[in-house]
């Protein structure tokens, strides 16, 4: 059972700004906020968007109950008028953005939130938390999946990140190209494929390895995967095949020199007639380790720490910035801060990907007023990158739930294939395609 | 409103192992599992324990409802007998461990979980998720607090990590020495001090900076903190003092060369008579940036990304290992896996810190059988590091909630003071004190 509201998963200043803006009237000004990142993590060629569907899930739950309102009152965070405004708050704006599974680059307008200042400002932290973490995981996952070539990658990272982050990570991993997860809550909430083997403690709690293997096979059948590195691998593989027969589903190796061990275990399994028994390896794998295992006889990978921590880039540095707002005269006006090194590009954006011979060769971010953008005609073969997630408070439910994740998983594969092959290089370098900002 | 059960925040194999162990009888064997890390993040001198109290919170909620049981059945993860066993599952074991706020080192037995194999194995992922993330944040926080000397550090990192991780991070930051958080849910759940200023969008939504400052002061009073780097800092400071008077509470700078800007802003504020107006700086601060700001006239720090991502070490690599279990003859026996590079130390542990002239000079991990440990006499000045969190299913409620966090915050300061001064060095090096393993 999972029941909660994300309304207080936010920084205090969003409520104090709301309070002040309600008093002075600016809370009702129409606004466009945009999520983007100024740069990719050092050396990365692209990022993968994930989490946008979870924002729709969160907005469904976003409401303040009496306890929350009392908290805001007791702590003197907002005044009585704001409490009244919050009583039946529901976001009624419009959200557009990149598809989940889409590649993004510096300045890509990953999400656009349009509504009143009051309602949009309340979402800042929540939107960023979801996109920054989920996209970090999906971006790392995508590199790992490329490095693993056709071998399935499975998420086993739950234990190395916050317990809720683990659930989000499992979903983001599948968006990023993974096939399944060990995390049961993610499997339950999102209909993902759940996978698992056994832990060393299962062997250790038994009086001997053979007892443990027999028990696991009895409970799970011969197609299960036995963990063979608790004591001596060679002996364990012999025992495993003796107990399960050559129909044994798989073995897992979780320590040592994985490439060398996989080869020896493959040889041993083949010699024992277990030619179709699969080998899964785990143990702090990252995309570089996977690349190094390409010639080893491995059938699938269980990936943990480096997946859920974004393989060196645990967040995407995405920001949520006001780019257009209604002025005192009622017209929409582009705005931007001028802070040193952190200046933003004024005006709402359109976004397209351009192609040459079916290969992506550029990201185009077009900025301007509502009117100039309406008149803008992209080149005929440019792909429009923005889709609608929510229209005046009504979510596009096809962007939530299991099917949306499957589509995102498929979109990521297609969109990556469109990029120059350097995108899949693990060497540090520039973004795979340049971003051009067109100021209308 | 927050209501959920963490029972499925776990890897699938824990339920399949439970299923097999219930069939073969080993699920009822008494076991001791221990949480420890084999190494600190590269170059770190110590880690800080955080999250143990959250484990007690999680165990209170840990139950499976009909939907969960149906999920486990429909996915064929466990059989009917296991479903029956799970129907009114409640952890009834004993949990000991290091205090929150305590320093830990390689092989420190940070948490000990004792109970039947069945009940202990279900907790593995949840316990590790909580301790690995919370301790990573507390460990980073502690280094930042040292580097900030007496200046208060505030958590503003929620937007750069998963939305629930943000709540845990705020709590862990305070355990690690921070004074407060911007995160409202953390403030609500744990009674933490909530802090905040304003965002650039608040200035931008107004027709001019002066309008924004006036509105904020009207809503929040003169003691508020105004953000002064949306356009031109010098002009903004002038406007801020003109609008609020010299009683203005504070200004925040979020970009540029913070040390130089803080000095210029201080000079300007003093010249305007605003000598007690505080300066808060933010902008991707980490412990090294804080150390570099020591001589700048800064009054407090808002710290985000690097806090919630553990400043380069987003997880602690803690593992949960079976170290002792009942054998077929009913006696408790030390056990350990022998995996290459990942071998574990058999037997349950005691843990002490030794001193010379009131300064800690060693961590002592004593391993043996139940009997030999009962007979072990530590040196008279050794400090016993293990406290009881739960006794046969009954939580020590003084280790949960707001007061426990305050005590952990205070304990961290005291325990750090006991360590050699090199512990507070930001230079890479060995753990501040060596760990000696005594095998009885």
What does this structure look like?
Two copies of one chain form a homodimer. With 440 residues, chain A is of the alpha/beta class. Chain A has two domains: 12-138 and 313-439, nicotinate phosphoribosyltransferase; 149-312, Aldolase class I (TIM Barrel, Alpha-Beta Barrel). Helices cover 38% and strands 20% of the residues of chain A. Chain A has 16 helices and 20 strands. Chain A has helices at 12-24, 52-61, 66-74, 80-87, 117-121, 124-147, 163-175, 184-190, 200-205, 209-220, 233-244, 258-271, 287-292, 305-308, 370-374, 401-418, and strands at residues 2-4, 30-37, 47-48, 94-97, 103-104, 111-116, 153-155, 180-181, 225-227, 250-253, 278-281, 300-303, 318-326, 332-334, 348-356, 359-368, 383-384, 387-391, 394-395, 435-439. In chain A, strand 11, helix 13 (287-292) and strand 12 (300-303) form a beta-alpha-beta unit. The longest helix of chain A has 24 residues, at 124-147. The two termini of chain A are 50 Å apart. The mean pLDDT of chain A is 96.
- SS-based structural class of chain A? alpha/beta
How far apart lie the N and C ends of chain A? 50 Å
The mean pLDDT of chain A is 96
Largest sheet of chain A: 7 strands, antiparallel
Count of the domains of chain A: 2
Please identify which CATH superfamily of the largest domain in chain A we are dealing with. nicotinate phosphoribosyltransferase
CATH C-level label of the largest domain in chain A = Alpha Beta
Short structural summary:
Chains A, B: Residues 8-132 form the Nicotinate phosphoribosyltransferase N-terminal domain. By secondary structure, chain A is of the alpha/beta class.
